[in-house]
Design goal:
The structure holds 3 protein chains of 3 kinds.
Chain A: H1 13-36, E1 40-41, E2 47-48, H2 54-59, H3 62-95, H4 98-109, H5 116-127, H6 132-139, H7 153-178, H8 181-189, H9 194-222, H10 226-232, H11 239-248, H12 253-277
Antiparallel strand pairs in A: 1-2
Chain B: H1 6-30, H2 45-51, H3 54-85, H4 94-105, H5 108-121, H6 128-153, H7 156-164, H8 169-198, H9 201-206, H10 214-224, H11 227-249, H12 252-258
Helix pairs in contact in B: 1-11, 2-11, 3-6, 3-8, 3-10, 4-6, 6-8, 7-8, 8-11, 8-12
Chain C: E1 3-14, E2 17-28, E3 33-37, H1 44-52, E4 59-64, E5 67-68, E6 79-82, H2 94-104, H3 109-122, H4 138-150, E7 156-160, H5 168-185, E8 188-193, H6 196-202, E9 205-210, E10 213-218, H7 220-225, H8 230-235, E11 240-249, E12 253-258, E13 261-266, E14 275-280, E15 285-288, E16 298-308, E17 312-319, E18 322-329, H9 330-334, E19 344-349, E20 355-358
Classes of the chains: A mainly alpha, B mainly alpha, C alpha+beta.
Chain lengths: 290, 261, 362
């Protein structure tokens, strides 16, 4: 323990270990992949250390822009779906009392601590041609041939909704919890009915928290790889899938890295939007006070 | 005034039901003669087979070993960071704050690929060590935040009181500070272990050819489509995860991290 | 009868500890400033919330100007609440906070403008109308809450400990303004408070409550000078108490025998049992430097503590194993010999200043 002598104390060695670790194991690799994006792959497959922007220029071709817009579009629709389902779920949780609230939260999260791949596998066996849904529908004669959900865009949407829902429920829930119940009472007292209280008091006071929460779901969706890979098939590739493909199939590391750079820029823009929109500083994660 | 709209309540219960359906279906499949046919009758064969199949025990052991080592590494590094930065936490420059948030915010696919490039450039052989390092690289930040919170709750005068009562610096650390942050340490370790045990994508990129963790095994079985074995394994994994959640929930410090996933 | 509560009861379990409001009957006049006074947990806030419509009574009736409002939801009652923590809407400006109820009623824009400005003038904060709720002080927030509740002219204004969040100086200032405001707008004000001084200063009439029971209703003067329960006497102002037995009576007085002697007390019409409490206000007791001719209501003791408070001096006098508080006005004290701790003194009081009450069964 250092003595509190001056206001500008040097950062202790213990902290330097941690910061050094982060620098070495996260930042440096990230710099390498960014640096790689300015190199070129020679026709024989080696790297050429000739710095240029060709990879970025190449990524603005129609096929890659299409993937970019598709990624943003699917992530957007999936975020809105999460919002549509997550809002009532959070609202119900915030309105319930005591142990019901605790139990509800725990119930919501238990599935998310089973292995991620396993959850995807669960969805695959649910949605596939021989999956539970098709078996049940065929059994009752509702359909004659299995409906295709797996390896379609619907499959991707279901996968995203399933895997991101709780992460949107939590911020909505905590915004609702932070809302002083007295404000609702004051609204009733001043002559507002339930609907008016909801639209004129509840919504205006939580919209900021809901927006930030949505971004925290939207951002990781943009970088999704496994869900489109396992539930969407080749047609529904995200930016992340195209990137991995460049690395392992095309063996074009520089171009794959440029896509990583593009994805990072996309994330930065979204994060920047978030800092602009919120009154509180950007790189702050809201804790859950439950 | 606290009545919930029945429509809202219905959505809540349907959502919870649907969240559990895939998992319960996996468990159910484990006991079906033909996992893809609900009417094929029940059996314990798949589970029995699972316990005699070394190709599944090996990945499990690998995953456990990687989890234990990477969690220990992450807790060491993360705790050192929290202890050193707790006094500065609110006035850290944005660059350091961003550096700490980077592993949490960066998409796993970029983290995985950049670590792969990094290891390849350093000419490190991919395998057990690289996976442990990679897992500890992203879980250290999570541990840091848990420990930071735990340390903030400590009364700063407690160390001074101990000093006043004649404790030397190392005695303060061992007899005063450490016993008070043990809950956080345990919570942080369990979280880091779970993150490692759960991880697929980063292992996928940094494990090389020879090493197979449990999620990697599941992935490859899924790609081949050998279901009966896979279902037995799923059942086992669901049991392990449930056990871990219960452990984590029982630790107050990590409860909110459980709820963040 | 403007606001009438009849046989109102409410039972609920809060965190495992049950609460029961015994039947409350109150009638509150139009334009009256009425206080509900009592310690925390006495049920005063419950009564206010029942009137406001935030709770439903188990039984009983609430009528406002002859109309039964017992089961109306809050937004359909023509009365507004000023909340303890003000509950201003953080997403709206001060102007919009006050305009809230008018907008719901679809009042025209010009009229809203006019009425909000008038309300702002009434509470003297016209210059704050464009501020946000987090840009104003506690005292200003209080005024906004008042203006918001008054702007659409309710029949009754409910105030839930409105001054408790203010600092002491401002609290005293706001008391005067609240009282003036009540008379100016001519509305019924019902205020909940645990501060007896506040209740004495503000109310036309007040109700003292304890453990879900309404003990006494009356003007501040009645409550202070003629309490009907030792708890009421103790809660409002300070008291000295002597417990004793009724031993005799004359046409005008009772005789009370206690361990400190036998005292005569003027009859006041309350029905009495055998075990009684004699209540004496500290400022109504006199301190004699030496034994006088007075033989009646005299006790001998010694000063064990004194506190000089400027306008008065407070003495603690020990008599056998009991202690008495006596306040002596400075003017009165100057004329006499200075007293010190340890001095022997005599305490006396006028027969009509003593209050005789039944000792409650504990």
């Amino acid at each position: 323990m250092d003595s509190k002598s001056t206001t500008t104390k040097p950062i202790p060695i213990t902290a330097m270990v941690f910061i050094g670790w982060l620098f070495l194991m996260t930042f440096l690799p990230f710099l390498i992949i960014l640096g790689m994006s300015f190199l070129e792959r020679t026709p024989v497959g080696t790297l050429s250390f000739h710095f240029n922007l060709n990879n970025y220029i190449r990524s603005f071709q129609y096929i890659y822009l299409k993937v970019l817009f598709k990624t943003v579009w699917i992530a957007l629709i999936a975020t809105l779906s999460c919002l549509a389902v997550g809002f009532p779920v959070a609202y119900h949780l915030a309105r319930s009392k005591g142990w019901m609230k605790q139990l509800g939260l725990v119930l919501l999260f238990i599935p998310f601590w089973t292995n991620f791949i396993l959850r995807i596998y669960g969805l695959v066996s649910l949605l596939g041609n021989h999956g539970l849904i098709n078996q049940v529908l065929l059994h009752f004669g509702i359909i004659k041939t299995p409906i295709e959900i797996l390896y379609t865009r619907t499959g991707v949407y279901i996968g995203l909704l399933y895997n991101y829902l709780p992460f949107l429920v939590v911020p909505i829930f905590s915004s609702l919890e932070k809302l002083d119940p007295l404000l609702r009472e004051a609204g009733f007292d001043l002559g507002a009915n339930r609907i008016q209280v909801f639209w004129r008091i509840v919504i205006p006071n939580i919209k900021e928290g809901v927006f930030i929460g949505s971004l925290f779901v939207f951002i990781p969706m943009l970088g999704e790889y496994v869900i489109p890979d396992l539930l969407g098939g080749a047609k529904e590739a995200f930016l992340g899938n195209v990137m991995v493909n460049q690395f392992f199939v095309m063996q074009d590391w520089p171009f794959g890295s440029a896509i990583a750079g593009l994805l990072s820029v996309l994330l930065l823009i979204t994060l920047w939007l978030q800092t602009r929109w919120s009154r509180t500083p950007g790189l702050k994660m809201e804790g859950l006070d439950a | 005034m606290r009545r919930s709209n029945p429509f809202v309540a219905a959505i809540f219960f349907i959502a919870i039901f649907l969240l559990y359906t895939p998992l319960f279906y996996l468990i159910l499949q484990t006991f079906l003669n033909n996992p893809n046919d609900l009417k094929s009758g029940f059996t314990l064969n798949w589970l029995i087979k699972l316990f005699h199949s070394p190709s599944l025990w090996e990945p499990l052991m690998t995953s456990l070993e990687i989890g234990i080592l990477s969690a220990s590494l992450a807790v060491t590094v993360g705790t050192l960071g929290a202890v050193g930065l707790v006094e500065f936490a609110s006035l850290l420059p944005v660059s350091i704050q961003s550096l700490i948030m980077l592993p949490i915010l960066l998409p796993e696919v970029i983290t995985g690929l950049s670590l792969l490039l990094f290891f390849l450039l350093l000419r490190v052989e991919l395998g057990f060590t690289t996976v442990v390092m990679a897992h500890a690289s992203f879980s250290a930040s999570f541990v840091y935040f848990i420990m930071l919170e735990q340390l903030k709750k400590l009364d700063p005068q407690m160390a001074e009181a101990a000093q006043d009562l004649g404790a030397k610096p190392h005695e303060i650390l061992w007899k005063v500070t450490l016993p008070n942050i043990i809950p956080g340490l345990m919570g942080g370790w369990l979280l880091a272990f779970t993150l490692s045990f759960d991880d697929f994508l980063i292992s996928f990129f940094t494990s090389g050819a020879g090493l197979t963790t449990l999620p990697l095994k599941i992935y490859s079985l899924m790609k081949i489509g050998v279901t009966p074995e896979l279902n037995g394994l799923s059942f086992l994994m669901i049991c392990i995860s449930t056990f871990l959640v219960l452990l984590l929930v029982s630790k107050e410090q990590s409860r909110k991290w459980v709820l963040r996933g | 009868m403007p606001l009438e509560l009849t046989g109102l009861t409410k039972t609920y379990n809060k965190d495992g500890s049950g609460f029961h409001l015994f039947p409350v009957d109150l009638s509150i006049e139009t334009g009256e400033f009425f206080c509900l006074l009592g310690p925390s947990g006495c049920g005063k806030t419950t009564v206010l919330r029942l009137i406001g419509g935030f709770e439903t009574p188990n039984s009983g009736k609430i009528t406002l100007n002859g109309k039964d409002i017992t089961h109306l939801p809050p937004h359909k009652r023509n009365l507004h609440t000023v909340f303890q923590r003000y509950a201003l809407f953080p997403h709206l400006s001060i102007f919009e906070n006050i305009a809230f109820s008018l907008r719901l009623k679809k009042v025209t824009r010009n009229e809203i403008q006019e009425r909000v400005l008038e309300a702002l003038r009434l509470v003297q904060i016209e210059d704050l109308k464009d501020r946000r709720t987090y840009q104003i002080s506690g005292g200003q927030a209080q005024r906004v809450a008042l203006a918001r509740a008054l702007v659409d002219q309710p029949e009754v204004l409910l105030l839930d400990e409105p001054l408790s969040a203010l600092d002491p100086e401002l609290r005293v200032k706001m008391r005067e303004e609240l009282k003036a405001l009540c008379k100016k707008v001519g509305l019924t004000f019902i205020m909940v408070t645990h501060d007896q001084e506040e209740a004495l200063q503000l109310s036309d009439r007040m109700a003292v409550m304890r453990d879900g029971q309404c003990l006494q209703v009356g003007t501040p003067k009645t409550i202070y000078e003629d309490p009907i329960d030792p708890f009421v006497a103790r809660f409002i102002g300070q008291v000295n108490e002597i417990t004793g037995d009724l031993t005799g009576e004359t046409p005008e007085t009772y005789a009370l025998q206690s361990s400190l002697g036998t005292f005569r007390v003027k009859k006041n019409g309350h029905p009495l049992s055998k075990r009684l409490n004699l209540i004496l206000r500290p400022e109504k007791m006199r301190l004699l430097r030496q034994r006088s001719q007075i033989q009646e209501n005299l006790i001998e003791g010694s000063i064990c503590d004194l506190t000089y408070l400027g306008s008065r001096t407070e003495y603690t006098v020990k008599v056998k194993d009991a202690t008495f508080k006596v306040f002596e006005q400075e003017l009165e004290r100057l004329k006499k010999r200075k007293l010190n701790v340890g001095d022997n003194v005599y305490l006396t009081w006028r027969t009509e200043d003593a209050i005789l009450l039944n000792t409650p069964n504990s």
